[in-house]
Amino acid sequence: MTTSSHAAPALTTTSGRGLPDRPPPRRRRRSWAPYAFVAPAVVLFVVFLLLPIGYAIYLSFQGLRLAPGGAFGRRVQVFVGLDNYKAAVTDPEFLAGFGRLAVYGLIAVPFTLGLALLFALLLDHPRTRARRFSRTAIFIPYAVPGVVASLLWGFMYLPSTSPFSWVSEAVGGGAIPFLDLPLLFPSIANIAVWGGVGFNMIIIYTSLRGIPVEIHESARIDGASEWQIARRIKVPLVAPALVLTGLFALIGTLQVYGEPTTLRPMTDSITQTWVPLMTIYRDAFTRDDLPLGSASSVLLALGTVVVSLLLLRITQKRAFGENG
Amino acid sequence: MPTPLGRRQFLTGLSALAAGSTLAACSGQKSSTGGTSPSASGSAAAAPGEKITLNFWAWGTSQPGLVKAWNKANPDIQVKHTDAGGGTDSSTKMLTASRSGNAPDVGLVEYTTLPAMIVGEVASDITSHVQDIKSSFTEATWGQTTFNGAIYGIPQDVGPMAMVYNETRFKALGIELPTTWQDFATAAESVRKADSKSYLTVFSPQEFGNFAGLAQQAGSSWWKVDGDTWTVGIADEASMKVADFWQDLVERDLVKVEALLTPQYNKELNAGQVLTWPSALWAPGVIYGAAPGQAGKWAMARFPQWTQGDARVAYQGGSAAVVTTSSKQPEAAAKFAAWINSSKQGADIQLGTGQYPASILGQQAAVASKPPVLMPQQEDFWKLASEIAAETIPSISWGPNVNVASSAFQDAMTKALAKKTPLRDALSATQEAVVADMRKTGFKVNG
After folding, report:
1. Stretch B231-244: mean pLDDT
2. Cβ neighbours of A298 (radius 10 Å)
3. A44, A271, A305: best mutation site toward chain B, by most B Cβ within 10 Å?
4. Delimiting residues of CATH 1.10.3720.10 domain(s) in chain A
5. Is the CB of A287 inside 8 Å of chain B's CB atoms?
6. How many CB pairs (< 8 A) connect A and B?
7. What is the Cα–Cα distance from B197 to B173, expressed in whole angstroms?
8. Minimal CA–CA distance to B239: which of B422, B379, B382?
9. What phi and psi values does residue B254 have, to the nearest 5 degrees?
10. Residue A71 and residue B116: Cβ atoms within 8 Å?
11. Higher pLDDT residue, B182 or B37?
12. Confidence at residue B261, expressed as pLDDT on a 0 to 100 scale
């Protein structure tokens, strides 16, 4: 069936262009080639993305319930409808996790983007020296794995090992409670900012380098200062890059997991449900309720898509011009 | 779990599970054979003279030695050991692996998670294979692996509760060794007066197992099952008494609220600023690991009591080997589990690595061995240990959702300590979460 449906248009095209008739088998072979080439990608996409998503959705409608047998029953998987979704949206801790995420995001996102833009503009400034070195130095933290970064900062936060607390104690103050509220939020956001600025800076910087030199030159000839050039020419022109990095930062915020999880053993202020992903992990694995974890994951994924689309919609017109 | 769990990793993980469960569904072996008739499938799998390979998941330093000794003595039943992480991680993995039908034949499980492993159909009923070794264990120990008359595991090590303390600092500050909890509170006060940087002990909201042990000592029973009806007593009067006791110490700043074994805590240990750890017989190894410089300064003593003259203590920690329902050679697996945990050779290997064996034979052998490296001066360590072990409370029962209880407890306690609300309320919140979860699953719960 597939073969004939492909063969027919091929023939029409041939005759339509007025070319001499060719034997159909060759056409048929050619029309299969693209499928063969995309097959590996499609297979990987289906096996490692679509199937797992499908399985997660399937699991989210299941539940482990008691059935007769064993010393005191056994838990078996049954269909429970929307029970898991109900449990997820009515779990105050899961929802409170989003609140904590918001506080964290309000600190982490503006700082990451602001610093990334600042560093990119400074690097792009014509009189900047040691450009290559600075670029590498700012980028290096991004190459440090998140868990290593969290441990590293964790030691700098713990009163007994913190150099900051050491200084503060030496001058007569007490240890700085980095890992207790309210300093906990900036402390954790700081790890993400430290690791994320370099990456975002590179994206913005690359975009800055793509601005035609003539634009700067004519602005300079017109008497614009570097500050004016940065504010009125560079920033508007790299707006698409800013939207992109903003989107990354937002998605990154919704997926915060590594930093608080690594810091958790060091402080009592981080609960097992501190952010939504931690709640999902706890439900799925610590509490052996994979279906509930799946339902929460589906909700989180949907939420991420919705927020991303909203952000794109709001910023698209301004960033990409009236065509957006 | 050493890496942050991004969405992609999470999905990849799910896909692995998806693949696994598909396989299980194809072979159809999971729920059909589940734990009911292990001997039948066992004899079918192993023909006489044929070599069997068993998989064994366990953590701890004594396992490689135990497996090596067994493999040497049993050329036909070879065991492959995998360290799948500590108690919580290992059990989590076993539950998942079991659902996809590829759990190991034998796995080490903490007593606290054993009921969850039974309802999760990981641990199988091995009553018919191990009747003859019942006399190798005390009633209290055996009670930890027997549920409604069926045996689900063979005890490996136990943790009767005891208190380790910094003897040198006790003497330096002129503190008397507390034998009751009332004395303990007085001692806590004296320590604060003697040295403002030191505390008698720390109270950590993460220590679920420790608190459960304290409550059990006070007379509480967190889970009880009668037929198919459960009673949950996490917020009963005895538990509340323990909560109030610690609340008072916390409010008067007589104990420090912090997590155990953090770099911060370890530094305080090394500086002699934390004077005791009321925990269990395995504590010396843990303290030594965090503060090797303290060797020779610490000692072990009996646990403080609520009533002067009592000697009752609960267990904290300890584990048993279970034969999984996925095992195709349950008989050989049970034999292996029984041998490592009840033979003299097995006990000697455990003692060599500082583990307190669960078997009577092992505990007798312990009396003759050297004290732990943390307290080489305390020559009667193991004699005292065996006396303490003989006084443990029999028939402690854990519930099918200790994992839920432990996570609910930790978060409720953390919140209560941070917001300075009563610890009692945290226990009530834990109780509610546990009962709600049990009812959701379908258990009958009293009250």
Report:
1. 96
2. 19
3. A271
4. 91-323
5. yes
6. 153
7. 12
8. B422
9. -95, -20
10. no
11. B182
12. 87
Burial of B274 (0-12, 13-18, 19+ CB in 10 A): buried
For residue B105, what pLDDT band results from cuts at 50, 70 and 90?
A: very high
What are the pLDDT digits (tens) for A153-200? Answer: 999 998 888 899 889 888 888 888 898 888 999 999 999 999 999 999
- Rounded CA gap, A169 and B198, in Å? 18
Q: B100 to chain A: which residues are within 8 Å by CB?
A: none
Segment 392-411 of chain B within 8 Å of chain A by CB: 400-401, 403-404, 407, 410-411
pLDDT of B13 > 70? The answer is no
- A259 neighbourhood in chain B, CB within 8 Å: 4
Residue A254 in this model has a pLDDT that exceeds 80: yes
Cβ contact (<8 Å) for B147 and A72? yes
What pLDDT score was predicted for residue B223?
A: 93
User: Any idea which fold A91-323 has?
Assistant: MetI-like fold (1.10.3720)
Q: Looking at the complex, does the CB of residue A73 fall below 8 Å from at least one CB of chain B?
A: yes
Please tell me the distance from the alpha carbon of residue A179 to that of residue A195, in angstroms, as a whole number: 19
Q: What is the largest CA-CA distance in chain A?
A: 94
Structural contact between residues B398 and B223, judged by C-beta atoms closer than 8 angstroms: yes
d(CA B153, CA B333): 11
Q: Is B248 helix (H, G, I), strand (E, B) or coil?
A: helix
Q: DSSP code of B305? A: B
Closest partner CB to B264 (pick from A48, A159, A294): A159
Comparing CB atoms, the residue among A47, A64, A158 nearest residue B263 is A158
Strands B444-445 and B146-147: unpaired
User: For residue B422, what are its two tokens?
Assistant: 């009563």
First-to-final CA distance of chain B: 38
Which among B69, B96, B70, B213 is positioned nearest to A287, based on CA atoms?
B96
Q: What is the mean pLDDT of chain B?
A: 86
- Of B14, B34, B441, Cβ closest to residue A56: B14
From the list B2, B415, B437, the residue facing A147 with the nearest CB is: B2
**8 Å CB contact between A265 and B88:** no
- Rounded to whole angstroms, how far apart are CA atoms B319 and A196? 43
Per-residue confidence (pLDDT) for residue A3, from 0 to 100: 41
| ipTM, 2 dp | 0.76
Quote the pLDDT of residue B396.
Answer: 67
Distances (CA, A) of B53 to A315, B74, B329, B332: 62, 11, 9, 9
Chain B nearest C-alpha distance from A197 (Å): 19
Q: How close, in Å, is residue B380 to chain A by CA atoms?
A: 35
Q: In the predicted model, what is the mean pLDDT of residues B437-442? A: 93
End-to-end CA distance of chain A: 40
B228 touching chain A per CB within 8 A: yes
Instruction: Let me know how long chain B is.
Output: 447
Closest CA to A229 of A124, A130, A317, A112: A124
Structure confidence at residue A48 (pLDDT): 94
DSSP strand pairing (B256-257 vs B276-280): unpaired
CB-CB neighbors (< 8 A) of A179 in chain B: none
Q: Do B4 and A261 touch (CB under 8 A)?
A: yes
| Cα angle B259, A177, B418; round to 5 | 55
Nearest by Cα to A193 from A258, A107, A131: A107
Residues of chain A found within 8 Å of residue B152, distances taken between Cβ atoms: 71
DSSP-derived secondary structure for B91-149: HHHHHHHHHTT---SEEEEEGGGHHHHHHTT-B---HHHHGGGGGGS-HHHHHTTEETT
Q: Across the strands, what pairs with B52? A: B77
Looking at residues B19-40, what average pLDDT do you find?
36
CA A24 to chain centre: 48
Mean pLDDT along residues A86-114? 93
